[in-house]
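Anyone have tokens for Bacitracin ABC transporter ATP-binding protein? Sequence:
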Amino acid sequence: MKQAVIETDHLVYSFQKGQKVLDDINLQVPQGSIYGFLGPNGAGKTTTLRLLLGLLRSENTGIRLFGYQIHRSRIEILRRIGSLIEQPSLYLHLTGQENLEVFRRSYDCPKSRVEQVLRITGLSDAAHKKAKTYSLGMKQRLSIAIALLHDPELLIMDEPTNGLDPSGIIEIRELIRDLNQNQGKTVLVSSHLLAEVEKVATHVGIIHQGKLLFQGTLPELQSLQHRHALLEIEVDNLTRTEQILAGRFSVFVKDGFTVHVGHSGPDEAALINHMLVGGGVRVSRLGAVGNDLEELFLQIISA
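Reply: yep, here.
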């Protein structure tokens, strides 16, 4: 495994005494990876990212970036990080180039970086347009350009595709790939969209209710999904269905006539159908369930 750019050691955080927002989080973000930090709203993603950046104060000393503890070397670490947390902060009355110039002076970067980050983020043609005329996707790319001005080694982004239309989502996705593959950046990106994370990430961490349920490479996640795939079955007798399948298969009741059943492939799907029909249950529909985030949580918990 490559050297970890980000490591947390049993990270715990509470906003109020006794109410844990994060519970025993052990992140390992390898150098050169695109790490998809996946979880529903309220799972603890933004809190984790704020702790990594030193934006929240924590008694936990087990946060290390580039091998250094954040509470001891915060300024040195932050010089090597670019970040975009929640909504971008832009001067809407200024052009894209003028926005970058303001931040360039704050970061004390070479003037040449403005043109470079405009090119990297695909905003060269819009450089002299006022930011208020930008689409949401363009504003997001301008915010990423600002985060790239000081040429950081690590880029941390919180829900960068949130609220974007399909075209904007594709643009951000391609930009993340380019930053990783062509610009040499390690990228940590949070999202609540499993399908989107699967399209761009090399590594994935899944957080739910403050706990890290899964961490590994994308192929490892996909292998888990394959081993614990779900069937959605419509039946006429829910009680009898549970009696027939209990003890051999994991059964999740969706509603009064539909169940989700864990299986490992086509052979078991055929067996499940055979068992139900043979047991007197009428099966009106049987099909594979798409791996959305809710179903994936159920699969991981029941694994």
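The chain is about 35% helix and 25% strand.
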